[in-house]
Amino acid sequence: MNHATTENRIPGEATRESLSQARRDLSEKADEARENVQQKASELKNAVKDSATEVWDSVKDAGAEVKEGAADDLGRVREFAAECAEDGRAKIRELSDVAEQRIRKEPLTSICIAAGVGFLIGALWRRI
Question: Which of 11, 34, 51, 110 has the smallest CB count inside 10 Å?
Answer without folding.
Answer: 11
